[in-house]
Amino acid sequence: MASITAQANLRRRVAEVDASISGLQYTRLALLRQLDAAAPSYPILTNISREVTSRIFVHCLDPLSYGHSTTSPRYAPMLLLHVCRTWRSIALSTPELWANLTLDFRRMSWALFQGATLENFIEDCVARAGTLPLSLHVNGGCSWEHTEKVQHLIPTILKRLSSRIQTLDLNIDLRHYPEDTPGFPLLQKLKLRLLNLNAFLPGNHPIRIFSAAPQLRELSMQCGATPSLFSIPGAKLTVFSGHRLSTTECVDVLRMAPSLIECHFEEPELDPDTPAISHSGLKSLTISLLGDNSSCEFLTLPTLQNLKISLYDFENVQPILPFISGLSASLLKLSWGTSPPLEVPLMELSAMGALTELKLCDPLIESVAELFTLLDLTKHHNFLPQLQVLELDQCAPYVNAILVDALSSRRALRSFRQFWVYNTPADALQGYYREEGLGVALEELIRKGLEIYIGLRNTQAPGPGAWLFNQPRL
To answer: Most CB atoms within 10 A, among 276, 312, 389, 404?
Structure first.
């Protein structure tokens, strides 16, 4: 009798649970109907076309491809898949969202390393990218428990995607490179960095996987990556950037790249046996030199038009003057910076008759005073006659009648900017300059079309007009 009663109680409880489930299912369906009915009322879904929304989604991507991995659910494109069904559909059908693939193994969740989860994710991204060429950014750093997985996965990815990659940024161990690939027929931009500088494997170098990259135009080598470690075709290279290469390696780059137009050498290390080289095609050079033992004397650049040079820990500018003098005939733009502040090579500047743009960073105030004097064309007719843009950055406050006379004498000048050092007490200086009547004179130059900025550097670039002492337009 007791067992019959227990069975009856169980059946009653099951019936109650079934009824509760049915009620919840009915409530769920009712809520879904309400959501479906309300969806058309969302302006972002009804007033903006799918095409426009798709373009907006593309702008949600990190423009530098740094800061997060494509796998992250907190950022685009993955975040866009979890907002609503319409956005998910648009995101999945926008190839540009998936053609830029960033794999930062340091930031990936543990679950992605299980089984073939990550491999499947990459396959899905490639499929969603359609026929678009791929941009791949890989950071091979990872925790020790995933090292073996990453060492296997990176070579597999490079082999699998080599025929589709147009831009490639690798920050990986030398041991991550595959022994060979079918080639990179679309590769145009390549950036190489090394994670583990001690993982040099002499028997496997130079790495030859980029030998078949006929479209390569831009090459950057940073953080220990050097030309001697890789076999890279240089015949069509137009842009090169290298960090802490030896000067001999810099010469090797210039020799292997006869089509080079733009070059960046960051803190090259002087090799006393560096051979001299002349490169007739180079138009733009950015170079930073560290210490008085640095030199550019091995370089002859007869057609260079744009030079940005920074000197660190130099006692004087003498070591660099022969190089600067050799560029006087062709140079159109010069950016000069030193730390600590050094004199500006005004004598060498006087020979640059074609110069149109001059930017000085952290100049000595004595050099600024002499420069303002020389800029007065009524007294110095041949000093930079073609100058159109003059900028002084991290400059001690120096505004006086000599400057106004110089600016007034130059019809070709379009822009003058003087950015003061950050700790400048602008308010204390304001009254003195206004008493001199300089504001009125500068305002007259603005009315004539000259762009002037004098004051502290703002977060946004100043537009046409003048702002003195970080105040609104005069």
So the answer is: 404
- Specify whether the CB–CB gap between 202 and 229 falls below 8 A: no
Query: Is residue 305 in a domain?
Result: yes
Task: Read off the DSSP letter of residue 460.
Answer: S
22 pLDDT exceeds 90? no
- Tell me, what's the pLDDT at 469? 43
Q: Are strands 277-278 and 189-194 parallel, antiparallel or unpaired?
A: unpaired
Residue 275 lies inside a defined structural domain of this protein: yes
Q: Are residues 367 and 294 both part of a single domain?
A: no
Does residue 314 sit within a domain? yes
Asked whether the predicted pLDDT for residue 462 surpasses 50, the reply is no
Question: Read out DSSP for 165-232?
Answer: EEEEEEEE-GGGS-S--S--TT--EEEEEES-TT---GGG-SB-TTSS-TT--EEEEETT--GGGB--
**Residue 385, preceding bond cis, omega within 30 degrees?**
no
Of 106-115, 151-160, 341-350, minimum mean pLDDT range: 106-115
- Report pTM: 0.81
Q: Do the domain assignments include residue 143?
A: no
What is the C-alpha separation between 473 and 461, in angstroms, rounded?
14
pLDDT mean over 338-366:
92
* Domain ranges, residue 358: 352-474
**Region 307-336 average pLDDT:** 91
The total of structural domains in the chain comes to 3
* Closest to 363 measured CA to CA, from 418, 407, 287, 294: 418
Q: Give residues with Cβ within 8 angstroms of 382, minimum separation 6.
A: 350, 353
**Tell me, what's the pLDDT at 465?**
46
